[in-house]
Amino acid sequence: MNEQTLDQLQRAAFGYFLQAVNRANGLIADTSRERSPASIAVVGFALSAYPVKTFTVPMHDVRRAIADGEETGFVKIHVKERTDRILGATIVARHAGEMINEITLAMVAGIGLRTLGRVIHAYPTQAEAIKQAADAYGRTRLTPPIRWLLRRWQRW
Hints:
Blueprint: H1 3-24, E1 39-44, E2 52-58, H2 63-68, E3 74-80, E4 86-93, H3 96-109, H4 113-118, H5 128-140, H6 144-155
């Protein structure tokens, strides 16, 4: 088997795997365009004894991914419910291997998702998806009176 045939087989197998992952996560894989395959990066617990809250950001919501034409994939960050303690994450994106390091460091150092959201992220990068997930966590922490005040302030 020559190298070109092996590369085609690997791309086809990865394409089927990515379609299955996307189907399981409610995303539709677009394999009609030729592009570099996405990477898959996972860190943390597969099964947790804690109740878990998951924050998901599809890559088609990340501006850099749109600009690069790499909208297939997602970032999922799992936190212990009622806290910001990160229990794990799954990233399916072209730069997943580079993006997972930030979450791994946060887990090892005991940095919560709330603190991770306050970190200034370079813009535009695909790692913005991590910031968006952290912002989604922050929006769940707003009490109704504070939410009302913020909405009123934004209208003003």
